[in-house]
Amino acid sequence: MPAAAPPDQSPFSLAFVAHAVHRRGGMERAACEVLARVARRVPVTVIASACDMPEASLRFERVTAPQRPAVLRTWAFARAARTIETRVGATITNAIGAAAIDADVITAQFCHAAFTARFGGLRGGRGLRALYQRVSGARFVAEERHAYGSRRLKQVIAVSQGTARELQEMYGVAEERITVVPNGVDRTVFAPAADGEAKAALRTKLGLPADAFLALFVGGDWERKGVRDAIAAIAGVPDAHLVVLGRGDAEAFGAYAARVGSGRRVSFVPPSPSPEQFYAACDCFVFPSRYEAFSLVTLEAAASGLPIIAHAINGTEELVAADHNGWLVPFGPDALAEKVLRLRDDAAVRARMSVAATQSAVRYDWDRIADEQFAVFTRAAAEARQAPRAMRTR
Question: Backbone phi, then psi, for 267, in 5-degree steps?
Answer without folding.
Answer: -110, 130
